[in-house]
Each structure stands twice: as C-alpha cells, then as structure tokens.
Amino acid sequence: MKKSCKNHHQTKNMHEPQPYVLLIDDDEDDLEMFSSGLENKDIKVKTFDSSTKALFYLTLMSGNRELPSLIIMDYNMPKKNGKQVLSLIKNNGDTKDIPVVIYSTNMHDLLRKQLSDAGALDCFSKPWTYQEFNTLVEIFQELTYSFISNKNLA
Q1: N- to C-terminal Cα distance for the chain?
Q2: Domain that holds residue 119
Q3: What is the C-alpha separation between 85 and 1, in angstroms, rounded?
Q4: What distance in Å separates the CA atoms of residue 45 and residue 65, rounded to the nearest whole number?
Q5: 115 found inside a domain
Q6: What is the count of structural domains for the chain?
C-alpha cells in the first residue's frame, strides 16, 4: 500500500534528532534551576556537572547530527574554566559552529570581551533575584529557539 506524503513526512521527522541545549555547571543547585527553567519553556536540556564530562560527551557526539543547538555553561568550574572549554569547542571542526553562552557570578567587562573574542555568543552575570533569573531564562529560550530554527533550515 502506498504511503501518503503526510505519513512519509511524519516518519522522517520521527527519525531526526530532537534539538536540545547542553547545560554545564558544577553547582548542583544552579544546574537544576537553569535546567528546570528551560524545560518549563519546552526546551530539551542535557546537563553535565563538569566540563570534563561535557567535553567527553561532545567528543562522542561529534560527527553525527545529535550535537546540541546551543551550549550554556558556567565560567567558574574546576579542572577547565569556561574559557578553556570554549576554546576546545571552537577549535573542534565538529563543534566549532555551536553557539556558546557563558554565565558567571563574576562577569565583568574584561572577561566578557575575552570570552567574546574567543568565540562566545554572549556572556551574562548569574542572576541574584527571581526576576533576574526569569529574564535570563527567557533570553536563553529566545536564543535556543533561534538556533533550533536555523539548524532545522540547514
């Protein structure tokens, strides 16, 4: 029996990887807070509590279509800080085009410029209030949907 175009299109989409955000933060509370905030905005999130684990995961995913649409990470992490991780991401042919957003409790103009020069899409201060948190999650949501749309058009 011949499949209709509509059924064929639905089958094709079922096999395409779901777009998602990769979230990296060694602080359990921040990791949970940001991932919950994004998931409440209907954004799929893959979390890692260390840069080493996240980089290993990206290495495993390299070369296939299941790389994240956006990476959001804390700057201050043990072993490798956000700038070091950013450099490794941007110097890898498979991951260099993934947009990276970095946040920190100590985000200042010089650090912001250094990270931007190294390839970060944007940099933010960690929120101190619930309103700041909601605003930041909305910014992350807009960025995510923007890059999911661009990735799906490619």
Answers
A1: 32
A2: 18-153
A3: 52
A4: 16
A5: yes
A6: 1
